[in-house]
Amino acid sequence: MKILAVDDDEIILELLKETVACSGFEDVTLASSGQEALQYIKTSPVPFDCFLLDIQMPHMDGVELCSRIRAIHAYKKSPILMITAMSDKQYVDRAFAAGASDYVTKPFDVLELGTRVTIASRLVDELKQAEQAKFENVTLKERLEHRTRHEVSDPLPIEDVDGFLDYTAFENYLLLQSRQGHFTSGLIALEIENIGEIYSRTPAEDFYYLLTDIGEAISDTFRGKFDFLSYRGDGIYVCAFNRGRSPFSDETASDLRLAIAELYLIYGSGEPMNVTINIGEQVAPGIFSSPGSLKNLFKAIDNLHHIQTTQKIDVATLLKPRRKQMPWRSKILKNVGRAS
């Protein structure tokens, strides 16, 4: 795995290089600034696989560098680990919002950092296998179907929607909050109840667009009231929020119901989808929550199985029979983008 480590402290850079080398990763390029890192990225004949970034650097901090790396198409999914002494929640949130995959605080534990880089290496291998799979089929149609083929349980990334994190990054965010004793983040889960039927009746590409549109509806409805969202698979979305500003209320439930109904979701046959959204009971961690644990996340998801009828959002009844059924918005927008 080819790694680029960026820090304005030369001693830290050498320590990073030696640490990851002990875990079997010896191909490490060192950069002492964001500008130097971008130059390496631009001129390297072989793309980098993983990035280790310090946050607090002069001229261009690690968060800005992370955002600029993510803006490069080839690195949209590459693991980016923030390695910094800045542990305040505001810095953590900025880093993950910019596209960070994980966050390790200084002084870092050698074993922990090696483990995190090893996990990143596995993700790199998965990304390379997925990329190679694109070229195994002959026709464009087969390539597209292979690219978008997935199981209903897969935690698919919801891209280009405000506040969404890849599910692995979302778990890493929660683990970091727990380890550092930040007990401000509450959790709530939402579920497409009839996801199995929708999945079985929807082509892979359209299924992804459907998840994206419902994710966008959730993001828009909860705007300003949550920290991050993610899609876990099996029709389940999870939301982390400041427990002092819960995103859910009767009003937001009504707004979400209308937002999804206005998508006019249909099957290829033109038949309306009978979409029902379940909202679980909120989980607010306390000062006695277990550090380094995802227990509260699992509890929020488990709460979906104990919901009250009033927390079900059945949008099928809101579809207006007199109004022409239209494909959902993101599919239209994405197809227009391909044609342009």
Notes on the structure:
By secondary structure, the protein is α/β, with parallel strands linked by helices. It folds into two domains: 1-133, 3-Layer(aba) Sandwich (Rossmann fold), CATH 3.40.50; 139-340, 2-Layer Sandwich (Alpha-Beta Plaits). Helices cover 42% and strands 14% of the residues. The chain is built from twelve helices and ten strands. The strands form two sheets. Strands 2-1-3-4-5 form a five-stranded parallel β-sheet, sandwiched between helices. It has a five-stranded antiparallel β-sheet with strand order 7-8-6-9-10, sandwiched between helices. α4 links the parallel β4 and β5. It is globular. The model is unreliable at 137-141 and 316-340 (pLDDT under 50).
* Shape descriptor: globular
Distance between the termini: 36 Å
Estimated share of beta-strand residues: 5-15%
Count of domain modules:
2
Order of strands, main sheet, comes to 2-1-3-4-5
CATH third-tier fold name of the largest domain: Alpha-Beta Plaits
* Number of β-strand runs: 10
Put simply, the count of helices is: 12
